[in-house]
Amino acid sequence: MALAGVRVIELAGLAPAPFCGMILADFGAKVIRVDRTKVGMAMDTQARGKLSVAINLKTTKGVALLRKLCLQSDVVLEPYRKGVMEKLGLGPQELLKENPRLIYARLTGYGQSGPYSSAAGHDINYLAMSGLLSRLGRSGERPHAPLNLLADFAGGGLTCALGIVLALLERTKSGKGQIIDASMVEGAAYLGSFVWKSRSVGIWERSRGENMLDGGAPFYETYQTSDGKYMAVGAMEPQFYIQLLKGLELDAGELPPQMSISDWPELSRIFTDRFASKTQADWSTIFDGTDACVTPVLSFDQVSSHPHNQERASFMKNSGGEESPRPAPVLSRTPAEPCLASDPAIGEHTVEVLEEYGFASAEIKQLLAAGVVERNAAKAKL
Ligand SMILES: C[C@H](CCC[C@@H](C)[C@H]1CC[C@H]2[C@@H]3[C@H](O)C[C@@H]4C[C@H](O)CC[C@]4(C)[C@H]3C[C@H](O)[C@]12C)C(=O)SCCNC(=O)CCNC(=O)[C@H](O)C(C)(C)COP(=O)(O)OP(=O)(O)OC[C@H]1O[C@@H](n2cnc3c(N)ncnc32)[C@H](O)[C@@H]1OP(=O)(O)O
Asked: Looking at the record, which segments are called Disordered (predicted)?
């Protein structure tokens, strides 16, 4: 796999850093998640392929232990509020001094500087601060955050993974590590570059929810079908729009012009009535194999059995039967090989990891007895 041989220490976090760690693990890195001790249940739902060590970082020995792990690793990924790692004596200056090849990734909401850098926050706050949230939502309604996908995962976890891979690539030339300051506000804003940079072509001039790509245009919308499901329409270009009208059995000559913005509400009503006359399966049969850019809005229950996704094996099941998306993109020679075993219990690999990093068994016993580290059995498989 592409990242085979890369060792990552991931400090346990809420959602974005776990996703970043899972991407690295899916593509072959050895990812060791550092959990707290005395925590019953892991909150990491993105733990595929990771190992877990439980270390009490509020002890001097726990901090020394983590330093030793970082000394022999390529990447440390930390998701805490600004200053937390420095308070523990695990800041980048200290760790890079000991291991100059270390890539030290800091994944936060607001970045390592600026007046908000120490504030708590979540996806919705970061998205708001990126400017993007102001553009998301229906006409006349409040801005709406679409799940916690944009800041936490796209602007956060995924962007941070890109930063780590870039730093690993650069290290092959310089031999040096570096610090990554991954701010979810900036990651989300960067993701919005298209919106920023396409303002000059006039496609965002109207209010939120009234433009071509944000729900304003009838040919870029979802429509309910007679069985309560939905179809997605993305027929922007005239040659594709004609195909849409053909599938809907509408005569272009009897309709207002596609780009007549003042007629969009009327066109939208016509399309709404038409889509409501057949089931999702009927519409799929009509539009499949055409260039109308019309697809069913698949639910999580439907998605893996759709013939297209099925042929590509786009979704997979782990050993416990849990379904999830297969890692993307697909690399031809060194594709991801996601782990199919169930997620690790907190501290499941404490002993194994410490042994691998050179701790003697007597030392491990002492650390366990003193509560500096904790070992737990793998979760029972039902
Ligand atoms: C919208 C998303 C998040 C969605 C996640 C949800 C799925 C979950 C969020 C809340 C969960 C529910 C809740 O917990 C209640 C129930 C609990 C129950 O067990 C399960 C059901 C629950 C209902 C549960 C269900 C779900 O899990 C939830 C709904 C996001 O946007 S995530 C993005 C968040 N932002 C960031 O990551 C940016 C960077 N980080 C931060 O800004 C802060 O870390 C953050 C997130 C604001 C949290 O701040 P906090 O004050 O809690 O922590 P920090 O200041 O960072 O300090 C960390 C301290 O921990 C110490 N520490 C770390 N490791 C160790 C260790 N191994 N040993 C000892 N101590 C450790 C560290 O030293 C710090 O200590 P100090 O404070 O003393 O310095």
From this structure: 308-335
